Amino acid sequence: MKNFLRKYGIFCALLTISLVAFGQAGYIKAKAILAQHLLENAWQQTLEDGKPHKPWSWADTYPVAKLEAPSQDIEQIVLAGASGRNLAFGPGHVLSSSKLTEQGHVVLGGHRDTHFEFLQYLKVGDPIIVTNKEGEKFTYKITGYEIHHIDKDTLYDRGENQITLITCYPFNTLQTGGPLRYLVHGERV
Predict the structure, then answer these.
(1) Which domain holds residue 15?
(2) pTM score > 0.85 for this model?
(3) Strands 63-69 and 74-80, how do they pair?
(4) What contacts 42, CB < 8 A, 6 or more positions away?
(5) What is the DSSP secondary-structure string of 99-135?
(6) First CA to last CA across the chain, in angstroms?
(7) Residue 8 — φ and ψ, nearest 5°?
(8) How many angstroms separate the Cα of 145 from the Cα of each of 9, 53, 117, 163, 164?
(9) Structure confidence at residue 23 (pLDDT)
(10) pLDDT (tens digit, 9 = 90+) per residue, 7-55?
(11) Residue 186 and residue 146: Cα distance in Å, rounded?
């Protein structure tokens, strides 16, 4: 009987740990999906009057663009800034890169297990469409991808009419963060 209780106790403990881990992962995904709906409303208001609108009253960011990857059936609202807090809700515009209304090198970041999970499936030649707050649409063609260690300068200026989408690497790993980054590059067409 004692042996049975010990085995049953270990089983219950492992089951509880597993349920908590899956619950946290589900919570992160659910939060990301719900946030995109709230961000879509704020984005529509921005397109109507050209002013930034917070998606919820306590937000410290706002939508600045819409990102589309037609080959993956992806549409996402991009936030101002790429802090960890912002990336929990959607992809973020790296503010040290060019503005989305300029013709420079635009850099967008996102989490590999939520909004930027689709990057692993993009192919050279696939289109990426970015709509800025003025409603202007810019189409970029994927020109390549690379993997960088964070110690290297991953955000070097690639010139005008360029976009880089960046996320952690490798995909589908249990380790958070890590030293590698996956970069997808595109050129405006």
Answers:
(1) 2-188
(2) no
(3) antiparallel
(4) 53, 54, 55, 62, 63, 77
(5) -TTSSSEEEEE--TTTTTGGGGG--TT-EEEEEETT-
(6) 72
(7) -65, -40
(8) 48, 33, 14, 11, 9
(9) 57
(10) 666 666 665 666 555 555 566 677 777 888 899 999 999 999 989 999 9
(11) 12
Looking up residue 172, the CATH number of its domain turns out to be 2.40.260.10
The structural domain count of the chain equals: 1
- CA–CA separation, 71 vs 12, rounded Å? 44
CA-CA distance, 21 to 17, in Å (whole number)? 6
- Give the separation between CA 12 and CA 22, rounded to whole angstroms: 15
pLDDT confidence band for 172 (50 / 70 / 90): confident
pLDDT tens per residue across span 60-113: 999 999 999 999 999 999 999 999 889 989 999 999 999 988 889 999 999 998
